[in-house]
């Protein structure tokens, strides 16, 4: 699909507008649901004490003065948002999973090794604790963080993989999809809602009839995809799921054993091995 922008509108600004509109529209919908208690059965986290209006100025600052200039800069450097106006279908399709993997890797590295680094100078500079002052239970909190934190956790995981896959050319549809889906995922991940319960077998049938043989398998895939526990676990435990979450392949957290559901088993296995080695060495002749 080829879409042409007016000559006065740079593609980077257009993509930023898509991101901003989706972010605030979806965020406002979740805020409305919170205020009207419209989906209490799907609200699994509700621990934020900061109101929407208190978070909004910092979120707008980050989006307008950190994200937007960064996007304009990479376009000026012709790293992203520049090139052919229509990507080859294969390039288009392969770029999406490649960006997901790239996002996972970049965010894991910055999140675990910089933002959660116990070095006092880094802690004072990056102020990641500001983001953790929220409980990932209000959608807008996805971008409520210090400016350095926002650059490391939001801007780099978006623009670095985008540049590595060729920058997306000047394909308006591609950039609309990437920017919009990224904003949607971030808001949902921090909303405190978990739609995976909708795809439990008992909720699909209402207990009245048997499902088709393929339906539970499809429902399980969707349930795993929309599961929203990982980032909530990160906010409550801090040292788990650094990039594992909604829309993320979770490769790094799985490989390094920091995924929220692997940490306990890994710790138990380590302790078991330690005790076995200790006994072996103590009683060795």
From TrEMBL:
Domain Fatty acid hydroxylase as annotated: residue spans:
98-258
Does the UniProt entry include the keyword Signal?
no
Q: Which residues form a coiled coil?
A: none
GO MF, one example: iron ion binding
Protein's GO biological process: lipid biosynthetic process
A UniProt-annotated Pfam family: FA_hydroxylase
- Protein localization: Membrane
Q: Which InterPro entries match?
A: Fatty_acid_hydroxylase, Sterol_Desaturase_Related
Domain of life per record: Eukaryota
Instruction: Give the transmembrane ranges.
Output: 13-33
> Which PANTHER family does the record cross-reference, listed alphabetically?
STEROL DESATURASE
Q: What is this protein called?
A: Fatty acid hydroxylase domain-containing protein
Origin organism is: Aspergillus novofumigatus (strain IBT 16806)
């Amino acid at each position: 699909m080829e879409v042409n922008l007016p000559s006065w509108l740079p593609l980077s600004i257009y993509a930023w507008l898509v991101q901003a509109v989706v972010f605030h529209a979806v965020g406002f919908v979740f805020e409305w649901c919170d205020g009207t208690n419209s989906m209490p059965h799907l609200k699994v986290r509700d621990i934020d004490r900061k109101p929407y209006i208190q978070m909004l100025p910092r979120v707008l600052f980050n989006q307008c003065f950190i994200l937007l200039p960064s996007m304009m800069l990479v376009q000026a450097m012709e790293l992203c948002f520049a090139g052919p106006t229509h990507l080859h279908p294969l390039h288009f399709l392969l770029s999406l999973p490649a960006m997901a993997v790239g996002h996972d890797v970049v965010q894991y590295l910055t999140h675990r090794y910089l933002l959660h680094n116990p070095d006092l100078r880094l802690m004072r500079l990056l102020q990641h604790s500001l983001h953790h002052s929220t409980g990932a239970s209000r959608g807008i909190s996805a971008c409520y963080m210090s400016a350095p934190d926002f650059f490391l956790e939001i801007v780099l995981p978006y623009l670095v993989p985008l540049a590595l896959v060729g920058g997306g050319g000047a394909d308006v549809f591609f950039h609309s999809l990437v920017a919009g889906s990224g904003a949607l995922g971030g808001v949902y991940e921090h909303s405190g809602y978990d739609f995976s319960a909708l795809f439990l077998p008992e909720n699909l049938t209402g207990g009245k009839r048997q499902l088709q043989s393929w339906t539970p398998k499809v429902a399980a895939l969707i349930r795993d995809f929309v599961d929203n526990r990982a980032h909530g676990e990160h906010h409550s435990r801090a040292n788990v799921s650094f990039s594992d979450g909604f829309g993320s392949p979770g490769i790094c957290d799985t490989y390094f054993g920091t995924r929220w559901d692997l940490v306990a088993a890994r710790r138990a296995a380590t302790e078991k091995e330690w005790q076995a080695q200790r006994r072996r060495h103590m009683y060795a002749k």
